[in-house]
Design a protein that fits this description.
eight-stranded antiparallel beta barrel; two-stranded antiparallel sheet; 0% helix; 145 residues; disordered C terminus; single chain; mainly beta
Length: 145
Protein backbone atom coordinates (compact mmCIF):
# COMPACT_ATOMS: atom_id res chain seq x y z
CA UNK A 1 0.00 0.00 0.00
CA UNK A 2 1.43 3.38 -1.01
CA UNK A 3 0.25 6.91 -0.27
CA UNK A 4 2.41 9.73 -1.67
CA UNK A 5 5.91 9.14 -0.26
CA UNK A 6 4.86 6.61 2.38
CA UNK A 7 4.31 2.94 1.89
CA UNK A 8 3.54 -0.04 4.03
CA UNK A 9 2.85 -3.68 3.48
CA UNK A 10 0.55 -6.11 5.20
CA UNK A 11 0.71 -9.83 5.54
CA UNK A 12 -2.45 -11.72 6.40
CA UNK A 13 -2.39 -15.19 7.86
CA UNK A 14 -5.40 -17.39 8.02
CA UNK A 15 -5.56 -20.23 10.50
CA UNK A 16 -7.88 -21.95 12.90
CA UNK A 17 -6.99 -22.23 16.58
CA UNK A 18 -7.20 -26.03 16.26
CA UNK A 19 -4.18 -25.87 13.94
CA UNK A 20 -2.13 -25.08 17.08
CA UNK A 21 -2.83 -28.58 18.40
CA UNK A 22 0.26 -30.78 18.45
CA UNK A 23 3.78 -30.93 19.81
CA UNK A 24 6.06 -27.93 19.33
CA UNK A 25 9.63 -26.95 20.07
CA UNK A 26 9.97 -23.61 21.80
CA UNK A 27 12.08 -20.89 23.31
CA UNK A 28 11.71 -18.91 26.53
CA UNK A 29 13.31 -15.48 26.79
CA UNK A 30 13.68 -13.60 30.06
CA UNK A 31 14.92 -10.54 28.18
CA UNK A 32 18.58 -11.42 28.74
CA UNK A 33 18.89 -15.09 27.82
CA UNK A 34 16.99 -17.58 25.68
CA UNK A 35 16.21 -21.08 26.92
CA UNK A 36 15.10 -24.03 24.81
CA UNK A 37 11.76 -25.71 25.50
CA UNK A 38 11.30 -29.24 24.22
CA UNK A 39 8.09 -31.02 23.20
CA UNK A 40 5.49 -28.48 24.34
CA UNK A 41 2.08 -30.05 23.74
CA UNK A 42 -1.19 -28.29 22.96
CA UNK A 43 -4.29 -30.45 23.06
CA UNK A 44 -8.02 -29.88 22.85
CA UNK A 45 -10.01 -31.37 25.72
CA UNK A 46 -13.45 -32.98 25.46
CA UNK A 47 -15.13 -29.90 26.98
CA UNK A 48 -13.79 -27.68 24.15
CA UNK A 49 -11.04 -26.03 26.20
CA UNK A 50 -7.32 -26.43 25.52
CA UNK A 51 -4.36 -27.56 27.58
CA UNK A 52 -0.69 -26.63 27.25
CA UNK A 53 1.74 -29.06 28.84
CA UNK A 54 5.49 -29.50 29.22
CA UNK A 55 6.21 -25.76 29.42
CA UNK A 56 8.66 -26.72 32.14
CA UNK A 57 10.38 -29.56 30.33
CA UNK A 58 9.77 -32.90 32.00
CA UNK A 59 7.51 -31.56 34.76
CA UNK A 60 3.78 -32.40 34.91
CA UNK A 61 2.36 -28.86 35.10
CA UNK A 62 -0.44 -27.96 32.67
CA UNK A 63 -2.06 -24.66 31.74
CA UNK A 64 -5.71 -24.53 30.71
CA UNK A 65 -6.94 -22.15 28.01
CA UNK A 66 -10.02 -21.08 26.10
CA UNK A 67 -10.11 -20.13 22.44
CA UNK A 68 -10.73 -16.37 22.21
CA UNK A 69 -10.25 -14.35 19.02
CA UNK A 70 -8.55 -17.36 17.39
CA UNK A 71 -5.84 -17.40 20.08
CA UNK A 72 -5.47 -19.46 23.23
CA UNK A 73 -6.29 -17.32 26.30
CA UNK A 74 -4.77 -18.49 29.61
CA UNK A 75 -6.39 -17.16 32.79
CA UNK A 76 -4.22 -15.94 35.65
CA UNK A 77 -4.30 -17.70 39.02
CA UNK A 78 -4.38 -21.28 37.73
CA UNK A 79 -3.25 -23.83 40.27
CA UNK A 80 -0.51 -25.88 38.58
CA UNK A 81 0.18 -28.36 41.35
CA UNK A 82 2.70 -29.14 44.03
CA UNK A 83 6.47 -29.23 43.61
CA UNK A 84 8.48 -31.52 45.92
CA UNK A 85 5.52 -32.04 48.30
CA UNK A 86 5.57 -28.57 49.85
CA UNK A 87 5.71 -25.84 47.19
CA UNK A 88 2.40 -24.92 45.54
CA UNK A 89 2.71 -23.47 42.06
CA UNK A 90 0.25 -21.18 40.30
CA UNK A 91 0.21 -19.31 36.99
CA UNK A 92 0.30 -15.57 37.56
CA UNK A 93 0.77 -12.54 35.33
CA UNK A 94 3.03 -9.64 36.29
CA UNK A 95 1.44 -6.19 35.94
CA UNK A 96 3.29 -3.09 34.75
CA UNK A 97 3.44 -1.89 38.37
CA UNK A 98 5.08 -5.22 39.34
CA UNK A 99 2.12 -6.80 41.12
CA UNK A 100 1.23 -10.43 40.57
CA UNK A 101 -2.23 -10.84 39.09
CA UNK A 102 -4.16 -13.94 40.19
CA UNK A 103 -7.61 -12.93 38.92
CA UNK A 104 -8.76 -15.58 36.36
CA UNK A 105 -10.63 -12.91 34.39
CA UNK A 106 -7.21 -11.53 33.38
CA UNK A 107 -5.75 -13.57 30.54
CA UNK A 108 -2.66 -13.71 28.37
CA UNK A 109 -3.03 -15.00 24.82
CA UNK A 110 -0.90 -17.33 22.74
CA UNK A 111 -1.14 -16.48 19.07
CA UNK A 112 0.81 -15.68 15.91
CA UNK A 113 3.38 -12.88 15.86
CA UNK A 114 5.32 -11.81 12.77
CA UNK A 115 9.05 -11.30 13.27
CA UNK A 116 11.06 -8.61 11.49
CA UNK A 117 12.35 -11.19 9.00
CA UNK A 118 8.77 -12.00 7.92
CA UNK A 119 8.53 -15.37 9.65
CA UNK A 120 5.85 -16.21 12.19
CA UNK A 121 6.11 -17.61 15.69
CA UNK A 122 3.46 -18.18 18.32
CA UNK A 123 4.07 -15.98 21.32
CA UNK A 124 2.39 -14.97 24.56
CA UNK A 125 1.08 -11.42 24.33
CA UNK A 126 -2.10 -9.38 24.57
CA UNK A 127 -2.98 -9.40 28.24
CA UNK A 128 -6.68 -8.59 28.67
CA UNK A 129 -9.34 -8.43 31.33
CA UNK A 130 -12.63 -10.26 30.86
CA UNK A 131 -14.17 -6.97 29.73
CA UNK A 132 -11.77 -7.21 26.76
CA UNK A 133 -10.16 -3.87 27.56
CA UNK A 134 -6.41 -4.02 27.10
CA UNK A 135 -4.52 -3.25 30.26
CA UNK A 136 -0.94 -2.17 30.70
CA UNK A 137 0.89 -5.31 31.70
CA UNK A 138 4.44 -6.52 31.30
CA UNK A 139 5.03 -10.13 30.49
CA UNK A 140 7.87 -12.45 29.64
CA UNK A 141 7.60 -13.62 26.06
CA UNK A 142 7.46 -17.35 25.50
CA UNK A 143 7.63 -18.32 21.85
CA UNK A 144 6.57 -21.63 20.38
CA UNK A 145 7.75 -22.44 16.91
Amino acid sequence: MTAKDRSTSYQVIQYDVDELIGTWQGMFSDGQMNYGLKDITIEKLENGTYQLSNMLTGLPYKLKAKAIDNCLAFGAGQNLGVFEDNLYLSFEILSSDLYYVKDPSVTISLGPVMLTDGTFVFAFSGIKESTCSITSFNSVVVSIY
